[in-house]
Write a structure and sequence with these properties.
Helix content: over 70%
Structural class: mainly alpha
Number of strands: 0
């Protein structure tokens, strides 16, 4: 059950990035027109490295270093993927481009 929840959270977060304002802006600039349809946004996200960058950041966010730092900051062991993601995004070098999720 835990693995299913982690996959669900990952999918939700990746979906919010692929369909979010940053990717919409980049895709629209690339195509020189406003883009709002999900298929075009997903294609852009995948073709221009958004998906592979997300995979790298997800692994770092769920990894032992971030888990340790997040747990230390919270004063207890943390395994919730949303908390780990939000901690990572708040404290990583990429934080300017990506938002926390609720």
């Amino acid at each position: 059950m835990r693995r299913v929840m982690t996959k669900l959270v990952r999918t939700q977060i990746q979906l919010s990035e692929a369909l979010g304002p940053f990717n919409k802006f980049c895709c629209s600039c690339h195509l020189k027109r406003e883009v709002t349809d999900a298929e075009t946004l997903w294609r852009h996200f995948i073709e221009f490295g958004g998906a592979s960058d997300f995979a790298r950041r997800w692994e770092e966010a769920m990894g032992p270093d971030n888990r340790w730092y997040c747990s230390e900051a919270m004063g207890q062991p943390i395994s919730d993927p949303r908390l780990l993601w939000n901690y990572y995004i708040t404290h990583c070098k990429d934080r300017q481009q990506h938002r926390k999720v609720s």
